[in-house]
Design goal:
376 residues, alpha/beta, FAD/NAD(P)-binding domain, 20 strands, FAD-dependent oxidoreductase, oxidoreductase, FAD/NAD-bd_sf, monooxygenase
């Protein structure tokens, strides 16, 4: 019996995760990547329990997380250095920050071991519901299933004429910085001052991860080149951290992607192409790779049409809730009324202490693939 064939547009984290998981389930997998080489852009990857379970399931956790330090506390700190909230982590609800390049390299090698074919400099420009794709160079291919894992600006999604892409007026710098002996161990922090935030977290024994978020209109904060003095004016107590920033990456705008359905015929959208969101909850990649593994499991158990329905029924509510709460978190950070900034720490502290809100914020982190068997 011939293997089922899938074509995946995009060799990012979600595309590689799905490619590995399907090849491990005896699918014929072809990935087309538009870049000239396989590489991951970015610094650190917030990895919660859901993402860690995915990496373990497909056999890349040990390789991707070498020398990674697990975090016990994630603290939110206001401009007076007061603690607004502290999230605790355990062996059952783990959290760490893995360098993105290490996860990407481990996934590429997992794909190679599983027999996935990856072609670079091959941009997918369109797909149709019958299972055909066309590349920028004019070549066309047909498969049993087409996956658009080609990011927030997805050509696959645009060719299907579905979904809404919304630009958000917030952005961020991201970097890995060298660790020094004085750095805290096991503790990640997010510092708030007006409409700027700085997050700092242990990553490996060599690096810490730092992100600096602000409003796109805040030209001092989000203008190139990186303006250390602007950030020092808001966070003078973080001078030691800011002085260690050398190379950093700027995303001047974030995006939300909203779709009524992630699928159309034999084409499905995955990752940021399906549910792009601000990184306020650190779950953009986590939801994406969790969704990839859920899809692979459903395709193992069911025919393609049924599998796509089951996958969306299971996974989309989690992605939708994560988008909603990311938006709420972002609004508290960047859209709070200026005249009420003085009471923001107390309101956030009370809200974050609510068990119901904690459950909503951790919806994605608690998701476990393949357990909702009743849907089959």
């Amino acid at each position: 019996m011939a293997k089922k064939k899938v074509i995946i547009a995009g060799a990012g984290l979600s595309g590689l995760t799905l490619g590995t998981a399907l090849a491990q389930r005896d699918w014929d997998v072809q990935i087309f990547e538009r870049s000239l080489e396989l590489r991951e852009v970015g610094a650190g990857l917030y990895t919660w329990e859901n993402g860690l379970k995915v990496l373990e399931t497909i056999g890349v956790f040990d390789e991707a997380s070498q020398n990674v330090e697990f975090i016990t506390n994630l603290d939110m700190i206001d401009k007076t250095y007061g603690l607004m909230h502290s999230t605790k982590f355990t062996n059952e609800s783990r959290f760490c920050v893995i360098p993105r390049r290490e996860v990407h390299k481990a996934l590429v090698r997992a794909c190679e071991r599983a027999g996935v074919k990856i072609e670079t400099n091959a941009e997918t420009v369109s797909a149709d519901p019958s299972g055909n794709v066309q590349l920028r160079d004019g070549r066309t291919f047909k498969a049993d299933l087409i996956i658009g894992a080609d990011g927030v600006h997805s050509n696959v999604r645009n060719s299907l004429n579905i979904g809404i892409k919304e630009v958000v007026g917030n952005g961020a710098w991201r970097a890995l910085i060298p660790r020094i002996e004085e750095d805290k161990t096991g503790v990640a922090e997010e510092h708030w001052n007006a409409y700027r935030r700085i997050g700092i977290a242990p990553s490996t024994d060599q690096y810490r991860y730092i992100y600096l978020t602000g409003m796109t209109a805040d030209e001092e904060a989000l203008s190139e080149p990186f303006n250390k003095d602007a950030w020092l004016s808001s966070f003078p107590h973080l001078e030691s951290v800011l002085e260690r920033i050398d190379q950093c990456r700027l995303d001047k705008n974030f995006y939300y992607i909203y779709l009524n359905s992630w699928k159309k015929g034999r084409v499905a959208l995955l990752g940021d192409a399906a549910h792009g969101m601000e990184p306020n909850l650190g779950q953009g990649a986590g939801v994406s790779i969790t969704s990839a593994l859920e899809l692979a499991k459903q395709l193992e158990w069911n025919d393609i049409d049924i599998a796509l329905n089951c996958w969306e029924m299971l996974m989309k509510p989690t992605a939708d809730k994560t988008q909603i709460w990311s938006r709420i978190y972002g609004a508290a950070a960047a859209n709070w009324p200026k005249e009420l900034l003085g009471i923001r720490p107390e309101i956030i502290s009370n809200a974050m202490g609510s068990e119901n809100i904690d459950l909503m914020l951790s919806t994605a982190a608690r998701y476990v693939t393949g357990l909702e068997v009743a849907v089959r």
